[in-house]
Design goal:
The chain is of the alpha+beta class. The protein is built from four helices and nine strands, in the order ααααβββββββββ. The strands form two sheets. Strands 1, 3, 4, 5, 6, 7 and 9 form a seven-stranded antiparallel β-sheet that branches.
């Protein structure tokens, strides 16, 4: 551009402008220097851009690797936590399956014993032998009851396969509730049914129905009252259903009440049971099943 300005064809007087050769050469040198500097600057800028991009890319990769590493550690920690939670839930389930003898039941037992063994003169003295016999009887019953396996426990593989219309989505019925209010399987109305597939084929011996304890619930009107339990085996007798037990759940007794199966059941095999209830203790809207247990023993090859 400088050169073009210098070689402008005319001056103000209309004559030709004569440019000294040395001046033209210097102009060319200046232009060449400017171009060289611009090229060098562009090379420097490109080099700086590449360096920045390389360093940023390295930082990104390093940050990504660290994030993945930490994510792996967190996932591993959560897996361990899940494993421990499952183990804790299993242990709690095993603990919940144990139905402890309540102090109220023992007090009532002692009162009954005192009434039976009271002296004729009105003194409520109880013989030592009577207390020992009562304690032994209670202990043997507890040992027998606690040794019974629950084949309807979900932790062991049992599951609800059918039921009448639910009141709300049920929380749990085949898991221990630990006496917590509302931790139940609520069904609409005062009558209904629940069908359960047991964890394996058994010869049934007893049924245990559990409701929330009166010590922690002010309203237990949703407890089932008149009940029937049927059983059958899916692979035998074309799934023919037969009555296992018929009973009435009593709110004045222990919250976990066990009923032996009928003698007519004999050694019949079952892998499915159905609880039918035709009434509850007053609730018009729903009936709560807190826990249903099925006791028995697995048949031997000989049987």
């Amino acid at each position: 551009m400088i050169k073009k300005l210098a070689l402008k064809s005319t001056d103000s007087s209309g004559g030709s402008l004569v440019v000294v050769p040395d001046f033209v050469r210097r102009i060319d040198e200046v232009e060449s220097f400017v171009k060289t500097m611009m090229t060098m600057m562009q090379v420097r800028v490109d080099a700086v851009d590449k360096k920045i991009e390389s360093e940023v890319g390295g930082l990104r990769r390093e940050l990504s690797d660290k994030i993945e590493e930490k994510a792996g550690e967190v996932n591993h920690w959560f897996e361990k936590l899940d494993s421990k939670s499952e183990m804790l839930e299993k242990k709690l389930g095993e603990l919940g399956a144990v139905e402890f003898y309540r102090k109220e039941d023992q007090d009532k037992k002692l009162d009954d014993l005192m009434n039976v063994n009271g002296a004729s003169n009105g003194d409520m003295e109880v013989s030592l032998d009577g207390i020992i016999m009562n304690a032994r009887d209670t202990l043997m019953k507890e040992i027998h009851r606690l040794s019974r396996v629950d084949y309807a426990l979900s932790y062991g593989g049992a599951k609800v396969v059918r039921h009448s219309e639910p009141f709300i989505i049920g929380k749990k019925m085949l898991k221990p509730s630990f006496g917590e209010p509302d931790q139940c399987f609520p069904l609409k109305g005062y009558s209904g049914f629940v069908q359960i597939r047991l964890r394996t084929t058994i010869i049934p011996e007893a049924i245990t129905l559990e409701h929330v304890d009166k010590a922690v619930a002010y309203d237990r009107s949703s407890a089932p009252k008149n009940c029937r339990v049927y059983g059958w085996h899916q692979g035998y007798d074309a799934g023919k259903m037969f009555l296992l037990a018929e009973f009435s759940y009593d709110l004045e007794k222990s919250n976990a009440q066990t009923f032996n199966v009928l003698d007519s059941v004999g050694s019949g095999l079952v892998d499915t049971v159905r609880l039918d209830f035709t009434s509850n203790h007053g609730s018009p809207s729903h009936t709560c099943i807190y826990r249903l247990q099925v006791h028995g023993h697995e048949p031997t090859s000989a049987s």
